[in-house]
Amino acid sequence: MSSTTPWWRSAVIYQVYIRSFADGDGDGVGDIAGLRSRLPYLKALGVDALWINPWYKSPMADGGYDVADYRAIDPLFGTVADAEQLIEEAHRHGIRIIPDIVPNHTSDQHAWFQAALAAGPGSPERDRYIFRPGRGPEGAEPPNNWVSCFGGPAWTRLPGGDWYLHLYAPEQPDLNWQHPDVHAEFESILRFWFSRGVDGFRIDVAHGLAKDPELPDLASQPAPVDGQPQPYVQHPHWDRDEVHAIYRTWRKVADEFDGDRCFVAEAWADTPERLAAYVRPGGLHTAFNFDFLMASWDAKDLRAVIDDSLAMLSDVGAPATWVLSNHDVMRHTSRYARKTVARWVPNQRYQPQGTADLDLGTRRARAAALLMLALPGGAYIYQGDELGLPEVEDLPESVLQDPIWERSGHTDKGRDGCRVPLPWSGQTAPFGFSQADASAEPWLPQPANWSERSVEAQTGDETSMLELYRTALRLRRAHPALGDGTMTWLDAPADVLAFHREPGFTCVVNLSNEAYQLPEHSTISLASGPIRDGLLEPDHAVWLKV
Ligand code: NOJ
């Protein structure tokens, strides 16, 4: 790869769910001070950048994805000065910073929404959001049948009679992206943070900003053809073509600044073609490849996802960005811990099948890490992936904070199980997440046996997940074949993924039930488990020098 290739084409980006990363002030919630104190850890891990979940001023109805002021840091996390210091220190460590930006909705406490409430029906203030009269007698029915992603209707009625749209919680009113103020405000927010040195943004719900102006009812899903689900021709609020004009403007804003600033879209699209549309020339730089995360632990499924993604992205000249876990989904150590790993159905919460065998899940997670880090493009690591943390599936109901729990009428425990604070050291909670003399316990309880999975416990243990990640990232950084580029599949049985990358690199992943004889090679650079007699055991992966 040439040294002029932009960094984001090959970057390994570590996701910091800031509430749960490290607590600097002892209130049981992670913060910027905690993150700053752990920069040396991240540097030694070998990541290129941090994506930081929303840190803005927020009433925290949805973990900070309800922003009240985009130019202020929430006091729970610190101040703008702390953020500036973090950016500077991270840069000194050679680590870039990518905050989240949340343009689809604000908090109901945002000054604009408060002004809209005060100004009343028909006012220009209300026009920045999506207010409508209801249907039916006295407008008592919502304006249409759209549903909130967190359950229940996507509309809430105000005492004055009008309804407002929220595709997420009622505390997250959707902005009206047909309003010029909304465009101008977000361009200004981007410049505010770019000029403070951030290297890019992760765009929340990037596929949701444009709505059909008629706000029609959601039609039922088109009938499957040959058993294949068919995409909506034009969904009234997801992945509409109009969103791309917004991002072409954002791209120009990013290009005003020096130093390769970049965007990554959280865009859920029905097909790889539609995803690729976000990263066409002049649009965004990258988009998460959720198809990889949704695939089952199955060679055919994974291979199809890899082929389709690479083909579509290379048509538009964009790199892939592989991802296995994030703060919204069941941690992959637990997903893979089921004998049969269910394929994720888009737009539905994941339903694991059967009981978890965490040894199995860990073996597969190790193999998946080597697969992901060997594929062409960039990769995301969700904090704790490198420790092999499982989903905490047995959080007591009394501690749950995700709005999904309430909005689902207590039928869905939501996403807290993947958001439990990290274990750093020691034998008892808070495992170094907060200092020993902290005034409060971690905001979610950590399992007692996480002492075994702490950074301290794994450091220096060559068989640990942490050392596997450290070695893989070190090799990846040094190896000219890895990161951006191309790959070629090698002949292998249907349940084995084997591919070659120039110069001199081969990755083999065994998803079959039998040991697999490795192809000819000069050395084993890295393996997810012991290799005897050149045999790769089931659910293992290896990097070979050839
Ligand atoms: C996607 C974010 O990742 C998720 O955590 C959040 O709840 C929704 N967008 C709404 O902002």
TrEMBL record:
Membership in a protein family: Belongs to the glycosyl hydrolase 13 family.
Keywords carried by this UniProt record: Hydrolase
Keyword Hydrolase carried by entry: yes
GO molecular function annotation: hydrolase activity
Source species: Streptomyces olindensis
SMART domains found in the cross-reference section: Aamy
Domain Glycosyl hydrolase family 13 catalytic as annotated: residue spans: 15-419
Name this protein carries in UniProt: Glycoside hydrolase family 13 protein
